[in-house]
UniProtKB/TrEMBL annotation:
GO terms for cellular component: succinate-CoA ligase complex. This is Succinate--CoA ligase [ADP-forming] subunit beta. Pathway: Carbohydrate metabolism; tricarboxylic acid cycle; succinate from succinyl-CoA (ligase route): step 1/1. It catalyses: GTP + succinate + CoA = succinyl-CoA + GDP + phosphate; succinate + ATP + CoA = succinyl-CoA + ADP + phosphate. It comes from Vulcanimicrobium alpinum. Mg(2+) binds at residues 194, 208.
Amino acid sequence: MEYQGKDLFRRVGIPTPNGVYATSAAEVRDYIAAHPGSWVLKSQVMMGGRGKAGGIKFADDAATGETLARELIGKVLKSIQNPEGEEVRSLLVEEKVAIASEAYVSITIDRATKKPVVIVTSQGGMDVEEVAEAHPEAISKYWIDPAAGYSPFIGRQLAFAAKLPVGYRKAFPGLLGALYTLFMDYGANLVEINPLVLTKDGRVIASDAKVDLDDNGLYKHPDVADWNKKQPADADQAAAVAIGLGMSNYARFDDEPGAAPKNVGTIANGAGLGMGTMDAVKNAGGGAANFLDIGGGAQAELVKKSYELVTSDPRVTAMFINIFGGITRGDQVAKGIVEALAGGDVRKVPLVIRLTGTNADEGRKILADAGFVPVETMDEGAAKVVALANGAN
Ligand code: GDP
Ligand code: MN
């Protein structure tokens, strides 16, 4: 994604805007509050064309930043290339630069000659295929001989041929050299800067980044190879944040060979009760697919979203909701469950519910009216949910 591409850019010395990576609206708000100014919120997704898809927003103050971040995180961005869409789970918050000019530069391997080919145009900020179609004369290419490598005259020649505004001339040869180093050293299939911005105050900055790395080239850079592996854990964290929970309030557990199938979804309030619930499931001979700590004071809406998140894991075939009412009110939890299941678009799984404490009686009544049979103890609930998950009626 862009933020990872820019991390690589900085390693080789390509200037990028100042900024921070964020996974929640609160982080965005706090960052802008601490750094007053004009900021761009950029959705971090794999697909391009985020600008057109509504994934790029501008904020001049912390409150606007928070509101826009809330809108973006969880939103599904769609484009012609990606009609299915991709959900936004994190943002890059970056200094908004005053743009004087937008250029385009990329390096890929030319299939025909097997050589790295540099493509440059002064028509940046738009789809390069469109430029190639409408203004083929505005596109300049250079095939680099890998044996001879890169030298600054290539950059000078390309800047001239592509008619880059004069402001680019000084920085461009060095910047292209750095991009070539990145391309070769990381075994990339593609490195692309669109737009490469000339700011009104004369800086040349990579405003966007696209780096497609070949897995075969990554043995030299284990830290970067790890980016791909870390994603499942990060996805859980992002999913928790997207529904308004803390980052560590949701985690999925991988199946283990020899252990019981992890097919029981669990929702509890508080890490302690959550651990207890998972242990009870295990003692009953089952396996918890996940752990979702709904926190204190959960309202019906959050219960509903939590139910949806847990059932979004296809392995989950039954769910145990175990709530001890302190600040979390039993009636709110019950209402959330009933509401979640009333919507036609949710995946319904057998539910075992244990409510204790504040307003538990009201909660149990709401559930009973909706046709659920609540359980009294944790072990009773665990035994029941494991049986249901494994196909009992
Ligand atoms: P993409 O649409 O996914 O390629 O995302 P980009 O990062 O290329 O951003 C899309 C467009 O948003 C750019 O072409 C710019 O027009 C605009 N944009 C992004 N960052 C800035 C900025 O810092 N200042 C200004 N003025 N515009 C920006
Ligand atoms: Mn772009």
